[in-house]
Task: inverse folding
């Protein structure tokens, strides 16, 4: 259950918008700060008081002003917060829409959700918080569509079929037999192994399990 929330957002209008969305979800009295250093201090004090936050909602970009900061970006805040409270759930709310940045946040920083600022962002925020409260990640549809378009170009039909069968739990020998039965080529076990190795190298995965998990998480299959 998510009740105690910290909002890190330097624009007052966006901060108030997030608070309104939380109120619609019957989540009242969230804490909010305008600086990353303040956010980290709040998280640290909450942990020390055995009153940890359930969720951090943070922007990625924070404008510099007269106040000098040690932490100047949302990405750095996420990493620092994870060191203090590893189980803290994190939702990024940002106008940054570059797929590579979003993918890195999910892969390297292990965030729990991402919402684009813009049209329908209040609805997206509600969906994201509900998903995270149910211990599920929230990956924005726009990002999933972009990834599918990108991978549709990079991956051929055989790759998609192979990955889809693996998602269903089929082993390589079973996949080979399935392909032969359905007159799909290549179907040889050696061809399947070779292609899986190539995919793991391309997607920076060490095992077939990691490959499947990555493809599901990123909306490839």
Result:
């Amino acid at each position: 259950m998510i009740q105690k929330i910290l909002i890190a957002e330097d624009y007052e209008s966006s901060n108030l918008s997030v608070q309104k969305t939380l109120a619609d979800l019957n989540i009242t009295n969230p804490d909010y700060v305008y600086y990353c250093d303040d956010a980290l201090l709040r998280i640290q004090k909450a942990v020390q008081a055995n009153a940890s936050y359930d969720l951090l909602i943070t922007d990625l970009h924070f404008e510099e002003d007269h106040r000098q900061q040690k932490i100047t970006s949302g990405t750095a805040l996420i990493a620092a917060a994870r060191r203090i409270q590893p189980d803290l759930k994190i939702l990024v709310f940002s106008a940054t829409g570059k797929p590579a940045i979003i993918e890195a946040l999910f892969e390297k920083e292990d965030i729990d959700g991402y919402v684009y600022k813009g049209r329908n962002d209040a609805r997206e925020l509600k969906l994201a918080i509900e998903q995270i409260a149910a211990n599920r990640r929230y990956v924005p549809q726009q990002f999933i569509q972009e990834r599918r378009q990108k991978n549709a170009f990079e991956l051929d039909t055989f790759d998609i079929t192979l990955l889809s069968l693996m998602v269903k739990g089929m082993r390589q020998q079973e996949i080979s037999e399935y392909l032969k039965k359905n007159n799909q080529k290549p179907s040889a076990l050696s061809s399947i192994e070779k292609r899986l190795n190539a995919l793991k190298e391309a997607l920076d995965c060490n095992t077939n399990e990691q490959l499947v998990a990555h493809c599901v998480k990123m909306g490839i299959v």
Notes: The radius of gyration is 21 Å. The CA atoms of residues 150 and 220 lie 9 Å apart. The mean pLDDT is 86. The chain has two domains: 5-139, 155-217.
